[in-house]
Amino acid sequence: VVDDFELYTDDETDRIFQNWIDGWGYSTPEPGDPGNGTGSTVGYINAPFTERTIINSGYQSMPLEYDNTADPYYSETIRTWTTAQDWTVNGVDTLTLHLRGSSGNSQETLYIVVEDNAGAVAVIVNPDPDAIRDPLWAGWSVALSSLSAAGVDLSSVQSMAIGLGDRANPSAGGMGKLYVDDIIITKSPAGG
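Above: the chain's sequence. Below: its structure in token form.
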């Protein structure tokens, strides 16, 4: 399990937006975090901050709003681990994120960014242009080999971001909301 979103609470030090940093950041507890300046909003304004009804499994998921109508014209949330994650254990070869969107969402490119503790970065774009418009939960699987091919050391993964838009060539886009749950690394079935 990379993140099943079950450990976040409404307590001041364990809120979801204090772990998945969005465009807004947070002020307490000090020193807080100014956010990443993008058009993303993680969680809800009032407690409970996680989504408790629209879930893939367990009892909560991460609501992620995006607004690409204003500069910088893309939205990201990033999770940085204090201790680097080892994504090479037990022969795992696949990263899967479970997502649920809405048919009312503006179409935007969905991507992930994975960085190791030496600063090597891989950006992987979801090939389905309608991935965030699907109102049903669906898994997006990414071969870990695509991350290592970009130079990321999978034995020391430091952060992971989920983004919407085009971070390399941003341009004005739309708005919407999706839900993220059950980010896992697994071993694909033999012959799969």
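The longest helix spans residues 144-149.
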